[in-house]
C-alpha cells in the first residue's frame, strides 16, 4: 500500500488500533514485526504508538525495516520527552532506535547522535536524507535550510580542539546553550 509521505501522520491518526493492527499484519513481514511484544504492552495508547512506529518505519524504509522491541522501548522513552542514553554494540540498531520518534513527525526535541568517526556521521546523514527527504536535512557546511530534529556529530565537533578552538558546530551549540541559560 502506498500512503503519501505528507499524509502518513494524518492517515495513522484517523485509523483505529484494530485497523492499524490489521494493516501491519497484512503488510509488514511477519519475521520482522514484533507482534508478541506489542500485544504485551501495558496500555492501548502504547500499543497504538507501537503500531504507528512500526507502520511508519516500514513504509518510510520502503518495506525493509520494522523496529524491534528494544528499539520501540527507546522510541517510547524519547516520545515521552525523557532524556535517553542508549549504549549498545555495533549492528544492534542504535540509529533506528534514535530516530524512530522523528518518523512520526512530532516535535519532541532534538536528538543528538555522537558518531565515533566522520565516515559513520556521513553515512547516517545520507540515510536520513534518503528517509526524510531533502527538506528536513540541514547541511551546516553548505548552509542549506531544513528542520533539524536529529543532529549527528563527532566528538571533535562538540569540544575544543587542541589549539583551544571550537568547530563551527561547537560554536553553534555553545551559543545555543548560553542563550537558553
From TrEMBL:
Domain of life: Eukaryota
GO molecular function: ATP binding; nucleic acid binding
SUPFAM superfamilies given in the database record: P-loop containing nucleoside triphosphate hydrolases (SSF52540)
Gene3D superfamilies the record matches: P-loop containing nucleotide triphosphate hydrolases
UniProt domain Helicase ATP-binding: residue ranges: 75-181
Protein name (record): Helicase ATP-binding domain-containing protein
Lineage, uppermost ranks: Eukaryota, Fungi, Dikarya, Basidiomycota, Agaricomycotina
Amino acid at each position: 500500500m502506498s500512503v503519501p509521505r505528507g499524509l502518513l501522520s494524518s492517515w495513522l491518526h484517523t485509523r483505529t488500533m484494530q485497523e492499524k493492527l490489521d494493516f501491519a499484519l497484512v503488510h509488514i513481514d511477519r519475521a520482522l514485526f514484533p507482534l508478541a511484544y506489542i500485544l504485551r504492552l501495558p496500555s492501548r495508547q502504547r500499543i497504538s504508538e507501537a503500531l504507528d512506529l512500526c507502520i511508519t518505519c516500514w513504509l518510510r524504509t520502503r518495506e525493509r525495516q520494522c523496529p524491534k522491541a528494544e528499539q520501540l522501548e527507546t522510541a517510547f522513552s524519547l516520545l515521552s520527552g525523557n532524556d535517553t542514553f542508549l549504549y549498545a554494540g555495533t549492528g544492534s540498531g542504535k540509529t533506528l532506535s534514535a530516530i524512530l520518534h522523528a518518523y512520526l513527525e512530532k516535535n519532541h526535541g532534538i536528538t543528538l547522535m555522537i558518531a565515533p568517526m566522520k565516515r559513520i556521521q556521513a553515512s547516517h546523514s545520507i540515510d536520513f536524507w534518503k528517509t526524510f527527504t531533502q527538506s528536513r536535512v540541514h547541511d551546516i557546511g553548505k548552509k542549506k535550510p531544513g528542520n533539524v530534529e536529529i543532529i549527528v556529530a563527532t566528538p571533535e565537533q562538540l569540544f575544543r580542539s587542541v589549539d583551544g578552538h571550537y568547530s563551527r558546530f561547537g560554536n553553534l551549540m555553545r551559543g545555543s546553550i548560553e542563550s537558553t541559560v
